[in-house]
């Protein structure tokens, strides 16, 4: 049971892609597919989504190990010499272009940031994106929204990315905040496990990107019945990894903070 006084929330750690930025999973999926396509390798979206949120370096390596991908490499007689290195180099270039092209904010972004600032709650970010991409996003936040987080960490800044807790521990140490006073919010399972492994409270998001691989305007066209089915399915998956709370998107966070944490 949560002790509101003892466990007062002082820090919220957000994932970026699919949590704050609506391009989310689409950018990652497109980037992986375009990167591997240069080598005549087809990567299905489900294979990419499986490890969404982890360090992109590790993500590429895991995809290369999959039997479906290995069979294509053998069938197409693709040289393995420097294959990973070349994929990684091309991935970073394509990712930057995709992020620049698709940059929309999740509904509720402005109101939530204003609310947290008014309540003197610190805001930090973690991401599986490499540091150059994070730096670009931070500049966009500043330019578009005059938003500067109190701390931001990329998977490339630490030894281990998600689901390990290295990024959050780095944030907690830098801001001198206890894990019991922290919430981690993410739309990926690896991001929730990152929070669980750091000992923070966790909030999973079901309809921000990974679920439908569509941006907001496209998701609105999906019948409510289908959305509700997907929401229930993902909610169960989040609960299976013991996520503390599950919301549809960040627009619902304010009400949760008021109700559960008296903020």
Name the poorly predicted regions: none
Which descriptor suits the 3D outline? globular
- Most strands sheet: 6 strands, parallel
Average pLDDT: 90
Helix content: 40-55%
CATH class identity of the largest domain:
Alpha Beta
Domains, number: 2
Number of strand segments:
6
| Side-by-side strand order of the widest sheet | 3-2-1-4-5-6
Oligomeric state of the chains in view: single chain
What is the structural class? alpha/beta
Short note summarizing the structure:
With 263 residues, the protein is α/β, with parallel strands linked by helices. The chain has helices at 24-37, 45-49, 56-65, 67-75, 83-101, 109-118, 131-145, 166-175, 189-198, 216-219, 224-240, 253-261, and strands at residues 11-15, 122-127, 151-154, 182-186, 201-205, 245-247.
Walkthrough of the structure:
Strand 4 (182-186), helix 9 and strand 5 (201-205) form a beta-alpha-beta unit. It is globular and about 60 Å long. The protein is of the alpha/beta class. The chain folds into two domains: 11-23 and 104-261, Rossmann fold; 27-101, DNA polymerase, domain 1, CATH 1.10.150.240. It has a six-stranded parallel sheet, sandwiched between helices. The protein has twelve helices and six strands.
